[in-house]
Amino acid sequence: MNMTNNSNTNDPKIIVALDYADAASALNLVNQLDPALCRLKVGKELFTAVGPQFIEELTGANFGVFLDLKFHDIPNTVAKACSAASNLGVWMLNVHASGGLEMMQAARQAVDNSDIKPLLIAVTVLTSMNQAGLNQIGIQTDLATHVLNLAKLTQQAGLDGVVCSALEATTLRSQLGNDFCLVTPGIRPAHASQDDQSRVVTPADALKNGSSYLVIGRPITQATHPLKALEAIHAECIHI
Ligand code: C5P
What we know:
alpha/beta, TIM Barrel, 8-stranded parallel β-barrel, 42% helix, disordered N terminus, binds cytidine-5'-monophosphate
């Protein structure tokens, strides 16, 4: 599979971030969306509040689910968490690359041994982290170099890709090849509010930069008509 292929209904490029505190609020949005046009991202807040049954409810409604729990622990524990997540039938899950090569390899093996094999990606450096924050935890390497090093380690461990800024996608795509999946948040259509994101990229530019999938929250979840907002962004993606 060429991860840089553009949008089509079989492999929607938009992942809507379900940043909600409870199932009712999340379902109110989900019921307005179309699984042919998007997948859904469930993170720590919603998952901790509503649990695994909710994931099965989403997959039962034909939505691909990115379970964004960013596992980071000893290899054995991460492997078991990845097996459990795979058994929920999710489409994608993730770990922290800074857990190291052995941890990521254990995650890879666990997913490969599962009946359902989700895409397995890693977070390199959280975008909330800056150079000073890296230095504080003892990493003196330049931030961009550290992101690239962790992305290369992720590829060496056999994972399918990384979460990264769409601004980093051009470099990572050229360094890591076309089959490596780049999942990029911080996306804003040209007309939309930036909210609290400081470095944003339009959906079209993110795809041109080499993004494989776009994580989009508030431009869809806070829209007056979420489905219309999704359809408009989807239309922008398929014309790239
Ligand atoms: O509403 P918005 O489009 O900004 O939501 C983006 C989603 O992507 C949120 O769930 C946010 O936590 C997540 N995210 C991000 N930046 C990262 C990693 C994840 O915005 N570096």
